[in-house]
Specification:
alpha/beta
């Protein structure tokens, strides 16, 4: 946790001016424990903090009350600090990933890694060869997916969490993009029928900065069907490879995002 993140409600509820606000965290909040036991902060110390989706800055610990907790909202126990924003919090890059639903345990690692790299959105979809039970895991609805994205964001010392969308199929996912892709470069990662290497296609397409967005599709662990390949092709996606080795979905997503960001001149 390289930055301690707070929701808009937590930060803005205590605002006492346009640029500074006081915040209280409950004693048992995991962020309180991190600040006190991992960062070893005491009254008067500062730490990196930020508003989810907003600005980053410095927080100064002003008071710590660790007595027995009381019931009800009037309890004064907790950690108090003043927060002053200083920067934009490292905005996300114009890279979106379409990901075939993998095993839930892989998905959590994938979310952390791509959030850390700064992709702007993850479009999670069911695939024809993917295990249907994975989509019933509830990882998105129960909040574990957002938690993993938030962890990756904090690891990168950013405040901006990638957008997450869920679709039942590739067709439904691509339909949501209809008319909204603009000048985006569209690639589908495929080691069965690739047209060429990813890096070469990005270079040929003029991806050399953040001015042209990229949408990259990564299949689930059994890959794409011919029907799905045809869907991507009809929607302007070029089939690209990243070598002849078959990678896990989480690895492929991280490698693809890294290659794209490197070609954009970010890494």
């Amino acid at each position: 946790m390289n930055i301690v993140l707070f929701s808009e409600e937590e930060i803005l509820a205590g605002r006492d001016s346009e640029v500074k606000c006081s915040v209280r965290l409950p004693v048992k909040d995991e962020r309180t424990q991190h600040i006190l036991k991992v960062l070893h902060k005491v009254t008067g110390d500062s730490f990196d903090a930020g508003l989810v989706g907003g600005m980053a800055g410095k927080a100064v610990l002003t008071r710590v009350e660790k007595g027995e907790s009381h019931e009800g909202p009037e309890s004064e126990n907790g950690l108090y600090f003043d927060f002053e924003p200083e920067s934009d919090g490292k905005p996300l890059y114009p890279v979106e990933l379409i990901v075939g639903f993998p095993r839930p345990i892989q998905l959590k690692r994938l979310f952390r890694d791509v959030a850390g790299l700064g992709v702007s959105a993850v479009h999670l979809c069911g695939t024809e060869l993917g295990e249907k039970s994975y989509m019933d895991s509830g990882i998105v609805e129960k909040g574990a997916a957002y938690t993993a994205l938030l962890e990756g964001t904090a690891q990168a010392k950013s405040t901006h969490v990638p957008e997450l969308k869920l679709y039942q199929s590739v067709a439904a996912c691509l339909e949501s993009f209809s008319g909204n892709c603009g000048e985006a470069v569209r690639v589908m990662l495929d080691n069965v029928k690739p047209e060429g290497p990813l890096f070469g296609y990005l270079e040929k397409s003029g991806v050399d900065s953040c001015t042209r967005p990229v949408i990259a599709a990564i299949g689930s662990e059994r890959g794409w069907t011919d029907n799905e390949r045809n869907l991507f092709e009809r929607n302007g996606f070029a089939a690209c490879s990243m070598g002849n080795r078959v990678l896990r979905t989480e690895t492929a997503a991280t490698v693809a995002a890294t290659i794209i960001l490197q070609k954009m001149g970010i890494l």
